[in-house]
Specification:
The chain is of the alpha+beta class and 119 residues long. The protein has one domain: Double Stranded RNA Binding Domain. The protein is 48% helix and 24% strand. Helix 1 runs parallel beside helix 2. The protein is elongated. It starts with a strand and ends with a helix. 13% of the residues are buried.
Length: 119
C-alpha cells in the first residue's frame, strides 16, 4: 500500500499519480515491496523572512515487510528533480538491504551446517 502525504503543499492528483508510478517501478524491481506499507511525504520549505528559492523535499519511508525501516529524504529546488534523485538512491539502498539480508541468511545457514557436521 502506498500512501502519499502533502505537507505545506496543496494536494495534486497529477503529482500523486507520478509518485504512484515511480514507486510502482520500485515495486516491480523489488517484489517484496508490494506487501509493504510505503509512505511518501512531500513538502515545500520557504521562509517569509529570507528571500530565496523554494526547496521541495520528498521522503519515502517503508513501514513494514522485508525492507522495513528504510527511510530516505531528498531535497531540490524542483519537485521532479527531488523525486528523481530519491528514486535513484532508493534503488541503491534497497539493493544493499537485500544483499545484507541474503548474506546474513547464508552465513547463518553455514554456521548451522558447521555445527551439525561437528556433532
Amino acid at each position: 500500500m502506498i500512501q502519499v502525504k502533502f505537507r505545506s503543499l496543496k494536494s495534486s492528483r497529477i503529482i500523486r499519480e507520478i509518485i504512484l508510478d515511480k514507486v510502482g517501478h520500485l515495486q516491480d524491481k523489488f517484489p517484496d515491496l508490494k506487501n509493504s506499507r510505503i509512505q511518501v511525504a512531500l513538502a515545500m520549505q520557504n521562509s517569509p523572512r529570507h528571500p530565496g528559492p523554494d526547496v521541495f523535499s520528498v521522503s519515502l519511508n517503508v513501514r513494514n515487510g522485508k525492507y522495513a525501516g528504510v527511510r530516505m529524504e531528498k531535497s531540490a529546488s524542483n519537485f521532479y528533480e527531488a523525486l528523481a534523485t530519491l528514486m535513484d538512491h532508493m534503488l541503491e539502498v534497497l539493493n544493499r538491504k537485500g544483499d545484507r539480508i541474503r548474506v546474513k541468511s547464508r552465513s547463518m545457514a553455514r554456521r548451522f551446517m558447521a555445527m551439525a557436521m561437528a556433532q
